[in-house]
């Protein structure tokens, strides 16, 4: 492909991303994957270049741009070489017309910037939410330790602050390696590893991962429990939960799964009421802490969405509270940095659940935040998380 044709391809993908952001359609990642699937003639170098251009334009526009072309023109304003590719060549973008619409730049929509500032995140923190994320691994200690894993990998990896964590350059095809097929590691952000490690689990205990999804954190719990005891992974989403079993098999992790009905979780978990030594609540949230991976997500959020997630968080925390035995622990995690989806929910929980108290946390990265702990891309180089550990008295 010519460089100009790559620019037009990125504009086409951006148009789809913008339409999906307006209409609640698929994520940018999915749309791009589908776009490439339909054009198998596009080689891997072109794909990488097109994706880079499209994602750079997504990062450059704080609010939803009027069109893909307007978003790309925003980038071109600061990049003469890119502007030069608007040359009207075959498959390339039409020449720039003086006065044509250019998308507004910026980091976040104004209301989100305000919500972030009110949650204690300054401009540098907000900008870093759109950085490019590295690729982090967690050595699967059911099979191998970190040092032995480093020796098995085909490229050099750096140790991270997480006890079993390694970091690789962005774009490393780690999931195509033999060591991945053998279950020697999981791809998992360092922040996610550290948040999960804040739940004190021991081999032999009874542990519930209430919002397990496809089991990213469940597998870390299984490793911490050395596969001894009972580990139950639940979710209301059948498709996500069904992805856990093959992952657990690859990792050699022993996990039971249980599909929940929204609103009937406590009945379906009646045999676990007051029985769990530890419960993990990796609550559904807006994911503001993971924008490094899907920066267009900030165009989709509304204040109503945040309210809806906060209500879901209160609900899952309530369900989780019923499962914890006296003296047992509950870890509340969200991958959002907006207080309405973290610290406020924690305060509301403590006000209505007098039988629980928040315990101090000392993670290897991050800082205390309003009774819990915060990790952020700017401060810690991880995805953004809020987590709090509660103990049932
Ligand atoms: C942040 S995701 C979990 C990610 C997962 N723990 C991981 O590490 O990969 C939140 C999950 O909560 C689930 N969820 C939402 N409402 C729920 C409920 N009432 N009970 C249990 N799970 C729920 C969603 O389906 C979603 O999979």
Automatic annotation (TrEMBL):
Keywords: Kinase, Methyltransferase, RNA-binding, S-adenosyl-L-methionine, Transferase. GO terms for molecular function: kinase activity; methyltransferase activity. CDD domains: AdoMet_MTases (cd02440). InterPro entries: MeTrfase_RsmB-F_NOP2_cat, MeTrfase_RsmB-F_NOP2_dom, RCMT, SAM-dependent_MTases_sf. The active site is at 335 (nucleophile). Residues 116-393 form the SAM-dependent MTase RsmB/NOP-type domain. Coiled coil: none annotated. It comes from the Bacteria. It holds the Pfam family Methyltr_RsmB-F. One of its GO terms (biological process) is methylation. S-adenosyl-L-methionine binds at residues 235, 282. Belongs to the class I-like SAM-binding methyltransferase superfamily. RsmB/NOP family. This is RsmB/NOP family class I SAM-dependent RNA methyltransferase. It comes from Novosphingobium pituita.
């Amino acid at each position: 492909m010519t460089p100009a044709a790559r620019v037009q391809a990125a504009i086409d993908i951006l148009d789809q991303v913008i339409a999906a952001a307006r209409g609640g359609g698929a994520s940018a990642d999915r749309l791009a994957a589908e776009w490439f699937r339909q054009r198998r003639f596009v080689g891997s170098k072109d794909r990488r270049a097109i994706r880079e251009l499209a994602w750079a334009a997504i990062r450059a526009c704080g609010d939803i741009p009027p069109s893909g072309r307007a978003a790309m023109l925003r980038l071109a304003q600061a990049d003469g070489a890119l502007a030069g590719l608007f040359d009207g060549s075959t498959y390339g973008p039409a020449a720039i017309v003086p006065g044509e619409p250019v998308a507004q730049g910026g980091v976040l929509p104004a209301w989100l910037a305000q919500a972030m500032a009110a949650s204690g995140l300054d401009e540098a923190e907000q900008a870093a939410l759109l950085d490019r994320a590295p690729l982090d691994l967690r050595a699967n200690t059911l099979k191998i330790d970190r040092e032995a894993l480093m020796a098995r990998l085909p490229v050099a990896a750096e140790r991270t602050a997480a006890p079993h964590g390694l970091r690789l350059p962005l774009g490393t095809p780690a999931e195509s390696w033999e060591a991945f097929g053998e279950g020697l590691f999981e791809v998992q952000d360092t922040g996610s590893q550290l948040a999960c490690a804040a739940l004190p689990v021991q081999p032999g205990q009874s542990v519930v991962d209430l919002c397990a999804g496809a089991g990213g954190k469940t597998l870390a719990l299984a490793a911490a429990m050395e596969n001894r005891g009972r580990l139950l992974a639940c979710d209301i989403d059948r498709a996500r939960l069904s992805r856990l079993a093959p992952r657990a098999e690859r990792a050699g992790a022993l996990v039971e799964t249980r599909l929940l009905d929204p609103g009937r979780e406590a009945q379906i978990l009646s045999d676990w009421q007051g029985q769990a030594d530890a419960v993990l609540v990796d609550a559904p949230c807006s994911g503001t802490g993971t924008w490094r991976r899907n920066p267009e997500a900030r165009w989709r959020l509304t204040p109503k969405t945040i309210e809806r997630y906060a209500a879901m968080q209160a609900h899952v925390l309530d369900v989780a509270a019923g499962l914890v035995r006296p003296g047992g622990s509950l870890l509340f995690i969200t991958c959002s940095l907006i207080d309405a989806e973290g610290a406020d929910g924690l305060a509301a929980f403590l006000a209505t659940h007098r039988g629980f108290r928040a315990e101090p946390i000392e993670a290897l990265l991050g800082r205390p935040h309003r009774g819990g702990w915060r990790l952020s891309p700017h401060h810690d180089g991880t995805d953004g998380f809020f987590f709090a550990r509660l103990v049932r008295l």
